[in-house]
UniProtKB/TrEMBL annotation:
Residues 12-153 form the BMERB domain. It comes from the Eukaryota. SMART domains: DUF3585. PANTHER family: [F-ACTIN]-MONOOXYGENASE MICAL1, CALPONIN HOMOLOGY DOMAIN-CONTAINING PROTEIN DDB_G0272472-RELATED. It comes from Anseranas semipalmata (Magpie goose). InterPro entries: bMERB_dom (IPR022735), F-actin_Monoox_Mical (IPR050540). Keywords: Membrane, Monooxygenase, Oxidoreductase. This is MICA1 monooxygenase.
Length: 153
C-alpha cells in the first residue's frame, strides 16, 4: 500500500506547485503594472519636452525621440510578457480544474459497477464530459501560445 500513501502526497505537492506558480505570476503582473505606470509618466514628460522645447538643439530632440521610441519598445515587450502570463494563469486554472475532475472521476470509477446508482452513472458521464472539455481548452491554449510564438518570430 505505499502507492496509496504517496499518491495523495504527490498530488498535494503538485497542487502546491501550481499555487506557488500562480503567486509568482500575480507578483510579476503587479510589477508589470507598476512599470507600465512609470513608463507612461516618462513618456508624458518626453512628449512635453518635445512639444514645448521649440528652441532646443536638434541633437537634444533626437535624443528625446530615441528615448520615447525606447519606452514604446519596452512597453510593447511588457505587454507581450503580460499576455504570456495571462495565458499561464488560464493554464493553471485549467490544470487545477482537471485535477479536481480527475479526483471526482476516480471516486466514481473506483466504485463497484454493481453498486452504482443511475445518478452515479450520470454524474460519472457528466464529469467525463467536463474533463474532456477542460482538456480541449488546454489544447486550445497551447495552440494559441504556439501561434503567438510563431507570429513574434
Amino acid at each position: 500500500y505505499p502507492c496509496k500513501r504517496t499518491l495523495p502526497r504527490r498530488l498535494r505537492e503538485e497542487q502546491m506547485k501550481r499555487f506557488c506558480k500562480a503567486q509568482a505570476i500575480q507578483r510579476r503582473l503587479e510589477e508589470i503594472e507598476v512599470t507600465f505606470r512609470e513608463l507612461e509618466q516618462q513618456g508624458i514628460k518626453l512628449e512635453k519636452f518635445l512639444r514645448d522645447e521649440g528652441g532646443s538643439p536638434a541633437d537634444q530632440k533626437t535624443q528625446w525621440m530615441n528615448q520615447l521610441l525606447y519606452l514604446v519598445q519596452k512597453k510593447n515587450s511588457l505587454m507581450s510578457e503580460e499576455s504570456d502570463l495571462m495565458i499561464a494563469v488560464q493554464e493553471l486554472k485549467l490544470e487545477e480544474q482537471q485535477w479536481q475532475l480527475d479526483q471526482q472521476l476516480r471516486w466514481y470509477m473506483e466504485k463497484e459497477e454493481a453498486l452504482k446508482t443511475p445518478e452515479d452513472r450520470a454524474a460519472e458521464q457528466e464529469i467525463l464530459a467536463q474533463l474532456l472539455e477542460v482538456v480541449d481548452k488546454r489544447n486550445a491554449l497551447i495552440h494559441m501560445q504556439e501561434e503567438k510564438r510563431l507570429s513574434e518570430l
